């Protein structure tokens, strides 16, 4: 593994959300968070129209510089520095200063701004953070219906929802859960009702027990209920920190969770941000909801960070859209890699590798992720291993989503747009790698648009939308952050290996049409670059369905707009299955990786170390340098 140097991402060109071009990224000189930089001082602003937002992650801290360009608010540059200092301790404020200095340097060099690159210090206008972690929330109520309602409210916010507690007058179950699960927030939801009602007595008993609770890190206590119950709770909890909210007040619950993450961030932050810290995860929820409303589509956003993983679904019709999120603090791809390995198992990780990997090697790699969270894969096999962990981390996360949505065993809902976010996906060497990780983890059906938060700016867009309004995130600013990867066509069904699963005609607007036949078990990419348009005709075979029933042809009503990857035809089956045999599975993986051009050349080689009697051709990695496409 090699430590990743900080970079400045200079956004010099972009297209819109549907046909956006990839912002150019230019490396800057390495800057450590402990490198002396201009100190933060609020007296001298960067520029009258400029806006600086800092996003403090657990591995990297990013500074976003926004300014007016040709009458539109644009994302001008991004600076980045490690969040951990040379002494191995968190260095939030120093990392922010280094990232801001980088962003300003890039903006000054590229735009000729009147403010010099580092000649006038600046403090951030807003501070976001995901490095503090995902708050763990325990919801308890003496009434089952109220418990379900409160859980539904909590699912709108980025939090790890622990197993809810239904209690009666005996609160031992609740106290036992507090001790065993160590939540950051405890929500008691009840109503006073008649003074003799069981619910009123049980709710009061719970508060009586909690007010005397002595824990080293006591959780935030939030009480939700009717006016009478809240009045009684206020009197009872005078000496105990608490939050009161009316029953059904989801906004109050969201504010309470943000209060917890803000307190975590402030412990490490001394940079004097202009406002209280906000949550990057809340920003991603807000951005997902904004995109769904703006384009009237059902959206699934997957955010995979160094120390967390989160899925957000925005579904339904305009004005009645439902937002649901699940978050896990133990599934981050750096600090959570040992947990991913433990929960998924070595076989699950290994099934995504076209090479053999011993369990000891997987465990060693997982430990390296914890020890060096700011590291990057140095070789091709390390890159493949990281992407295998990413697939399983997302699959573990998505396993929690149907229950949160209330679907039970029905699985994931149909989605129109699948968005990938987080440093792991945004930093892939080839964009098709991010597309394959998303497809393998989610396995979307029929037609799905893919997008990537290439600039890791989704928290920024959501923060602006939530604090200023959706109008603050114009089309130009949106396309600076989101990159259209292309359309995925995934026929539902299964067939015989090698037999045609679907035939697709792509009628380009400016050149001759092409027709592609894709056999079952294969995945292919049809070129449709950014800026181009084409109309499609789909002819699935009799065993496959693209949304209109088995064997029924389909023609999308609107032209398809090009993406950075193209049109992905995924005929590997839904649900997708991998061969049980290791040799066949590895050969199949190699076929998929090579047919999509996802990685440099991979080849079969003979392992001479094996005995001749049991020697079998097995895939190995060609680590010779390969020029990026």
How would you sum up this structure, described in words?
- The chain is α/β, with parallel strands linked by helices and 629 residues long.
- It has three domains: 2-124 and 271-276, no CATH class; 136-250, Response regulator (Rossmann fold), CATH 3.40.50.2300; 279-571, no CATH class.
- The two termini are 23 Å apart.
- Residues 1-45, 109-121 and 604-629 have low confidence and may be disordered.
The main sheet comes to: 8 strands, mixed
Which strands sit side by side, in order, in the main sheet? 16-15-14-18-19-20-26-23
Query: Could you state the oligomeric state of the chains shown?
Result: single chain
Q: Which regions contain 5 or more consecutive residues with pLDDT less than 50?
A: 1-45, 109-121, 604-629
Principal-axes geometry comes out as: globular
In helices, the fraction of residues equals: 25-40%
Number of strands: 28
Task: Tell me the domain tally.
Answer: 3
Tally of DSSP helical segments: 17
Structural class: alpha/beta
Radius of gyration based on Cα positions? 26 Å
> How would you state the average pLDDT, rounded?
79
Head-to-tail CA distance between termini:
23 Å
* Fraction in beta strands: 15-25%
């Amino acid at each position: 593994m090699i430590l990743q140097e900080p970079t400045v991402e200079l956004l010099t060109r972009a297209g819109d959300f549907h046909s956006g071009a990839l912002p150019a990224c230019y490396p800057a000189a390495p800057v450590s968070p402990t490198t002396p930089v201009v100190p933060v001082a609020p007296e001298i602003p960067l520029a009258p129209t400029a806006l600086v937002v800092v996003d403090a992650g657990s591995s990297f801290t990013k500074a976003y510089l926004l300014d007016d360009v040709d009458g539109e608010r644009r994302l001008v540059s991004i600076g980045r520095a490690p969040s951990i200092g040379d002494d191995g301790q968190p260095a939030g404020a120093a990392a922010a200063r280094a990232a801001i200095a980088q962003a300003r340097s890039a903006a000054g060099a590229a735009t000729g701004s009147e403010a010099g690159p580092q000649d006038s210090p600046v403090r951030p206008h807003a501070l976001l953070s995901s490095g503090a972690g995902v708050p763990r929330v325990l919801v308890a109520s003496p009434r089952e219906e109220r418990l379900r309602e409160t859980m539904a409210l909590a699912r709108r916010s980025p939090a790890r929802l622990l197993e809810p507690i239904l209690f009666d007058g005996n609160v031992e179950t609740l106290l036992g859960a507090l001790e065993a699960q160590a939540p950051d927030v405890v929500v008691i939801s009840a109503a006073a009702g008649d003074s003799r009602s069981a619910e009123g007595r049980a709710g009061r008993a719970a508060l009586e027990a909690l007010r005397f609770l002595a824990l080293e890190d006591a959780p935030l206590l939030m009480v939700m209920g009717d006016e009478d119950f809240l009045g009684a709770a206020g009197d009872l909890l005078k000496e105990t920190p608490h939050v009161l909210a009316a029953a059904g007040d989801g906004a109050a619950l969201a504010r309470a969770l943000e209060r917890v993450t803000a307190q975590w961030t402030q412990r490490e932050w001394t940079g004097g941000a202009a406002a209280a810290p906000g949550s990057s995860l809340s920003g991603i929820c807000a951005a997902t909801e904004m995109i769904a409303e703006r384009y009237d589509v059902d959206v699934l956003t997957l955010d995979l960070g160094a120390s967390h993983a989160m899925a957000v679904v925005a579904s339904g019709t305009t004005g009645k859209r439902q937002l649901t999120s699940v978050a896990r603090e133990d599934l981050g791809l750096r600090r959570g890699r040992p947990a991913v390995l433990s929960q998924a198992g070595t076989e699950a990780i290994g099934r995504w590798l076209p090479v053999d990997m011993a369990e000891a090697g997987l465990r060693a790699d997982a430990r390296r992720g914890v020890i060096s969270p700011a590291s990057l894969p140095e070789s091709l096999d390390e890159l493949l291993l990281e992407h295998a962990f990413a697939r399983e981390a997302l699959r573990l996360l998505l396993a929690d989503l149907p229950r949160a949505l209330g679907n039970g065993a029905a699985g994931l809902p149909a989605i129109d747009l699948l968005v990938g976010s987080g440093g792991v996906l945004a930093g892939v060497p080839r964009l098709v790698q991010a597309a394959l990780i998303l497809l393998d983890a989610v396995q979307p059906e029929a037609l799905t648009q893919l997008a990537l938060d290439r600039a890791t700016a989704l928290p920024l867009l959501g923060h602006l939308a939530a604090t200023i309004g959706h109008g603050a995130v114009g089309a130009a600013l949106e396309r600076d952050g989101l990159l259209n990867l292309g359309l995925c066509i995934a026929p539902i069904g299964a067939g015989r290996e090698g037999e045609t699963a679907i035939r697709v005609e792509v009628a380009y607007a400016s050149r001759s049409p092409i027709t592609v036949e894709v056999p079952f078990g294969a995945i292919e990419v049809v070129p449709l670059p950014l800026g181009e348009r084409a109309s499609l005709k789909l002819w699935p075979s009799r065993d496959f369905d693209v949304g209109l029933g088995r064997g029924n042809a389909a023609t999308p009503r609107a032209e398809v707009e090009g993406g950075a990857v193209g049109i992905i035809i995924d005929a590997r089956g839904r649900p997708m299955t991998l061969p049980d045999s290791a040799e066949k599975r590895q050969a199949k993986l190699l076929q998929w990786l090579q047919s999509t051009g996802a990685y440099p050349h991979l080849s079969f080689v003979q392992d001479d170390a094996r005995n001749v009697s049991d020697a079998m051709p097995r895939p190995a990695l060609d680590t010779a340098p390969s020029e990026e496409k």
